[in-house]
Design goal:
The chain is of the alpha+beta class. 17% of the residues lie in helices and 33% in strands. It has five helices and 17 strands. A seven-stranded antiparallel sheet has the order 11-17-16-15-14-13-12. A four-stranded antiparallel sheet has the order 5-6-7-8, with no helix packed on it. Strands 1-10-9 form a three-stranded antiparallel sheet, with no helix packed on it. The protein starts with 6 loop residues before the first strand and ends with a helix.
């Protein structure tokens, strides 16, 4: 893929990878996901280094991925560990380099851009995962927009205000954060080099109930911080956290990205009202995401346009993302496997 930052990216739901190998496409590359005998998930280039058969057509035998064609076997690291009727493995064909993989929040996350991750996958505040405190839902939408274009939406407070017909917001209501310490409400600090963040403020009468205060004009603060492949968000009303979110992307190929989100809506103690607030917020968020993606479907990609001074958080995010693109390097093995 062009202009893709080195980062952690969501691959697919954990439950989608079971005893049978599963084909997938990410980063413009054909891959295979599978689990070894211990249940450990692995993601490898899809085609066998021998004669190119799809490993997704193989099966897991004794905890190893066996190619359907000549029964070569690979372990979770991508090393060839068995070739029938051969005592010595040919070193030049003995490895399919595995992508670093983590399982978190119900999904497989894959590191792209270097042999080893350059920073750990950021974490949510553990309290957010407490079902007694938060209701939750997940969403996913496909878009032709690039990963950077998708993620920069969270830093563009003018787009959010314009779309929701909120009060015109001055420059002082949108500010890039100085360091990770200013975003600890979102969760444990993200590695400094990988981090970027901003605080945005919105006012208006058309915010959903879950983002409203006690009287109009309603105001909500948005604290956003993230890494090149995703971000954490906290919507606060009168200093009280109301909604927390995790946003990530699945880069399939140029012109095909999946936006994935986890929304956590704070419970108020009344089950019926909580359910109503969750439904209302889901409608609000779905409309917001879909409208943004509709516009981006016919957008010039990457560094198009000239940000103005009030766009400082958005411009800072673009610069941050762009600095991580060269760190992806060039993976000759993966390119050759296409």
């Amino acid at each position: 893929m062009t202009h893709l930052a080195a980062s952690w990216y969501v691959a697919l739901p954990s439950g989608a990878v079971g005893a049978k190998p599963r084909s997938l496409t990410m980063f413009g590359r054909p891959l295979v996901a599978w689990r070894d005998g211990t249940g450990r998930a692995s993601v490898l280039p899809r085609h066998c280094p021998h004669l190119g058969a799809s490993l997704a057509l193989g099966k897991v035998v004794e905890g190893q991925l066996r190619c359907v064609f000549h029964h070569w076997r690979f372990d979770a690291t991508g090393a060839c560990v068995h070739i029938p009727r051969m005592d010595r493995l040919p070193s030049h064909l003995a490895r399919r380099r595995a992508y670093p993989v983590l399982e978190r929040y119900g999904f497989l996350w894959v590191w792209y851009g270097s042999e080893e991750p350059l920073f750990p996958l950021p974490e949510l505040d553990p309290q957010v995962l407490t079902r007694s405190a938060y209701q939750r839902h997940r969403f996913a939408f496909a878009t032709p927009a690039s990963p950077r274009r998708v993620l920069e939406q969270a830093f563009d407070h003018h787009r959010f205000a314009a779309f929701h017909d909120l009060e015109a917001i001055g420059q002082d209501c949108s500010a890039a954060l100085p360091d990770q310490g200013a975003a600890l409400r979102n969760g444990p600090a993200i590695t400094a080099d990988a981090w970027t963040g901003a605080r945005l403020e919105f006012r208006g009468d058309r915010l959903p109930e879950v983002l409203r205060g006690t009287a109009p004009p309603y105001a909500v603060d948005l604290l956003v911080d993230g890494w090149p492949g995703g971000q954490r968000l906290t919507f606060s009303v009168a200093g009280q956290d109301s909604v927390r979110e995790l946003i990530a992307v699945t880069p399939i190929r140029d012109g095909h990205t999946i936006v994935r989100g986890w929304s956590f809506v704070r419970r108020q103690g009344d089950p019926l009202r909580d359910a109503s607030r969750l439904r209302a917020y889901r409608r609000f968020r779905r409309r917001d995401v879909q409208e943004g993606l509709r516009v981006y479907a016919d957008f010039r990609q990457e560094r198009a346009g000239v940000p103005i001074e009030p766009d400082a958080p958005l411009a800072r995010f673009r610069d941050h993302y762009d600095r991580w693109v060269p760190r992806a390097g060039h993976d000759d093995e993966a390119d050759a496997a296409r």
